[in-house]
Design brief:
Blueprint: H1 2-50, E1 56-58, E2 64-67, H2 80-83, H3 88-91, E3 94-95, E4 101-103
Antiparallel strand pairs: 1-2, 3-4
Length: 110
C-alpha cells in the first residue's frame, strides 16, 4: 500500500515538474516575442514619423490612434492631441485650397 501511495505522489510530482518546465519555456518565448514586437512597433513608428506628408492610423473601430507630425505638425488644421482618440468620421472629409483631398475616412484592406 505504501509503495503504491509513494508511486502516486512521485508521479504527481513529476507531472508538476514537467508542467513547470513547460511554463518556463512558454514564458521565455513570450518575453522574446514581446521584445521583437516592441522593436517592430518602434520601427513602424519611426517610419511613419519620418514621412513628410500627414499620416494617421485608425483602430478597428475607425478611432484615430496615431497622427504624425507631417505637414508642419498639423494635418487639416488638427494637432495630434486634438485628433487622437476621435472617430475618423468626427473629423470628416476635408479639401485643400486647390480642391485636393486632405482627409478622407475610408478603410483600407491590408
Amino acid at each position: 500500500m505504501r509503495i503504491a501511495f509513494l508511486q502516486a505522489i512521485c508521479g504527481a510530482a513529476a507531472v508538476s515538474i514537467d508542467n513547470a518546465l513547460i511554463h518556463q519555456d512558454i514564458q521565455r518565448r513570450a518575453e522574446k516575442l514581446a521584445g521583437e514586437i516592441a522593436l517592430q512597433k518602434q520601427y513602424a513608428e519611426n517610419v511613419v514619423r519620418s514621412i513628410t506628408d500627414g499620416v494617421y492610423t485608425v483602430d478597428t473601430d475607425n478611432r484615430i490612434v496615431s497622427w504624425n507630425r507631417g505637414g508642419g505638425g498639423h494635418q487639416q488644421g488638427y494637432s495630434a492631441e486634438e485628433a487622437v482618440g476621435h472617430l475618423c468620421s468626427e473629423l470628416g472629409r476635408h479639401l485643400g485650397a486647390d480642391g485636393g483631398l486632405l482627409l478622407s475616412c475610408r478603410r483600407m484592406s491590408v
